[in-house]
Amino acid sequence: MTIRHLKIFLTVAESGSMSAAAKKLYITQPSVSQAIRELEEHYQIRLFERLNHKLYITDEGRRLLSEARPIIQNFDMLETNMARMRGYHRLRIGVSMTVGTCVLPRLRQDLSASLSDRSLYFYSGNTHTIEDKLLRSELDFGIVEGIIHAPDLVSIPIIDDFLVLCCSNDHPLASRPVLYPRDLADVDFAIREEGSGTRALFENYLKSRHIDMRISLEATSPETIRAMVKTSRMMTVMSVRLLEEDIRSGAIHVFKSTGHSWNRTFKLVHHKNKELGQDFTRIREALSRYKTPDFLDQISTAVFEE
Question: Looking at residue 81, what is its pLDDT?
């Protein structure tokens, strides 16, 4: 039995249902049910009865509720006092490389203003690394473009994004108004490292078309890849957000897909058992301000026909 069990029990008792408590605590309903079941097994009592689809607290539950309230209040006061002694609360946020390049500078400004009592720490890595650090409680939240596979992590789509195929203006394929999947079979690619969400999305697309990607450059930095593509015969796929300046100035040639295979979302990720609160709300509000990139609608581009 932990303080988390008591907090979940208190929230269920006050809200009157498992689903309402789960919503208030930003955790799953099965997690709430499991916590209540573990409390009942620990004390060998029944805390709630369900009658006509409604939840009623038992006499034993009321007794535990009266004992639990001051314990939770004292614990929260202890946490507050200890935080004051430290002088700050550290909020640890992990961002994948693409997300970091696209939104981190503005996001940090927004969070510094809305969470002025927090000490913000940011870590940048690929999606796989962020996922691993969240599972080991080395980060509080993650913002990634790749797919999260761990069942203990919750992913919430927040920001729309899509990839474009790009090359230098003097690349042999730059003169083509339309490219097809078969045209990529003999192309040299500059691509992100294993574990990158961008690479995984593009590799899976090529595999579905039975095309092996010929990699000439593998790098962890989108900026390195962008610079190499602009000065070589290599191609790459990249978030359109990273290329806006080059596209507007004509410094790079892009092919926009006619389908949806390269569409994706940036996701806010947290552990399913993490108690969420003001930090989560402020991060989600800040991220919701980023709109779908639509500047290509006003620019004539070549086409990749899926």
Answer: 73
77 and 13 in a common domain: yes
Looking at the structure of the chain, the number of domains it has is: 3
Instruction: Please indicate, yes or no, whether residues 201 and 164 belong to a single structural domain of this protein.
Output: yes
From CA 164, how far away is CA 49, in angstroms rounded? 56
Q: Are residues 104 and 17 in the same domain?
A: no
Residue 255's pLDDT band (cuts 50, 70, 90): very high
CA dihedral for 293, 296, 302, 306, sign (positive or negative): positive
DSSP string of 109-175, one letter each residue: HHHHHHTTTEEEEEEEE-HHHHHHHHHTTS-SEEEESS----TTEEEEEEEEEEEEEEE-TTSTTTT
Using CB atoms within 10 A of its CB, is residue 80 exposed (0-12), middle (13-18) or buried (19+)?
exposed
Q: Give the Å distances, CA to CA, from 216 to 201, 219, 235.
A: 18, 10, 10
Amino acid at site 34: Q
Asked if 300 and 192 sit in the same domain, the reply is yes
pLDDT band at 118 (very low <50, low <70, confident <90, very high): confident
Q: Give the model's pLDDT for residue 184.
A: 93
| Domain containing residue 11 | 3-86
- Do 39 and 119 share a structural domain? no
Whether residue 139 sits in one domain with residue 168: no
Tokens 């086409």, located at residue: 303
Strand partners, 270: 154
